[in-house]
Amino acid sequence: MVHGMTHSRTRISKAVIPAAGLGTRFLPATKATPKEMLPVVDKPAIQYVVEEAVSARLSDVLMITGRNKRPLEDHFDRNYELEEALTRKGDESRLARVRESSDLATIHYVRQGDPRGLGHAVLCAEPHVGDQPFAVLLGDDLIDPRDPLLARMIDVQEQHGGSVIALMEVDPAQIHMYGSAAIVPTGDRDVVRVTDLVEKPDTGQAPSSYAVIGRYVLDPAVFEVLKKTEPGRNGEIQLTDALRELSGRDVHGGPVHGVVFRGRRYDTGDRGDYLRAIVRLACERDDLGPEFRSWLRSYVTEEMQE
Ligand code: G1P
């Protein structure tokens, strides 16, 4: 039997979204509000991520949360008071927007008591996930809905078995901020075989300028590996280190393939990128875009004259 093919008969249906991070880069905004709730235009960042999971037909979502994350649960739950007030006003369009987030998917929550890293957060999903391959979506990465990535990764997992990560070519000067992958090509232009991984490599140590971005389709064998993974970079249990293990020859849970993403990705975990994401997404909106674009054009023209 081909390695890793054992689990791929039923279609992947579970998505895990780690959301236990402290969001220190956005303090003081994130002092009492989870960073996942920061609005990108008029929707909290986390809602884009859940919508992406749903559009890849992952209808069972598990969020790994921590302290101070109650607003996340409230956001994806009904708000009867608000719904009633909008109904009384006859404000159908806002009512629909309020209901959108609670009707999206079945969302489950588990707490990561002790934040010991992304690998540890993923391990908290084991009882819920069981023995089927599953997806992991990191909340800081927004993938433009017009450039679907996850559905392609699921196809690749179904085709090759094992685990699949998302890779993006970045400026070599930026690779130290990511996991970096050693890769070999396959017959598919957008698919590579991953032969090694390094989490946030020191200067000159990166195996390539292909960065791991926050989408994964994992074989459940990753849980056993995570249990044995020692703390790595920043003293945290790193998912990248467990995947490195799976990328070895003939390892159960491998091989690891990478889908090379060439679409639009926004990193809402970084303040500059967060602002860029808002501007881009606002420009593209049918309702806000036309007016916002024309304001932006004159603002930029004025700025250039100074
Ligand atoms: C995590 C992963 C890293 C990956 C990055 C993508 O790091 O550990 O391998 O490149 O997400 O956003 P973080 O940014 O959470 O430190």
Write the layout of secondary structure elements.
Elements: E1 14-18, E2 39-40, E3 43-44, H1 45-55, E4 60-65, H2 70-75, H3 80-89, H4 92-103, E5 106-111, H5 118-123, H6 126-129, E6 134-137, E7 141-143, H7 150-160, E8 163-169, E9 179-185, E10 191-199, E11 210-218, H8 222-228, H9 239-246, E12 256-260, E13 265-267, H10 271-284, H11 289-305
Parallel strand pairs: 1-4, 1-6, 4-5, 8-12
Antiparallel strand pairs: 2-3, 6-11, 7-13, 8-11, 9-10, 10-12
Helix pairs in contact: 3-4, 10-11
The protein binds 1-O-phosphono-alpha-D-glucopyranose (G1P).
The site of 1-O-phosphono-alpha-D-glucopyranose has 14 residues, from strand 11 and helix 9.
General description of the model:
The protein is an alpha/beta fold and 306 residues long. It folds into 2 domains: 14-269, Spore Coat Polysaccharide Biosynthesis Protein SpsA, Chain A; 270-306, no CATH class. It has 11 helices and 13 strands. The protein has helices at residues 45-55, 70-75, 80-89, 92-103, 118-123, 126-129, 150-160, 222-228, 239-246, 271-284, 289-305; strands at 14-18, 39-40, 43-44, 60-65, 106-111, 134-137, 141-143, 163-169, 179-185, 191-199, 210-218, 256-260, 265-267. It has a 9-stranded mixed beta sheet. A two-stranded antiparallel sheet has the order 2-3. The protein has a two-stranded antiparallel sheet with strand order 7-13. α3 (80-89) runs antiparallel to α4 (92-103) and α10 (271-284) crosses α11 (289-305). It binds 1-O-phosphono-alpha-D-glucopyranose. Residues 118, 138, 140-141, 178-179, 199, 211-214, 238-240 line the site of 1-O-phosphono-alpha-D-glucopyranose.
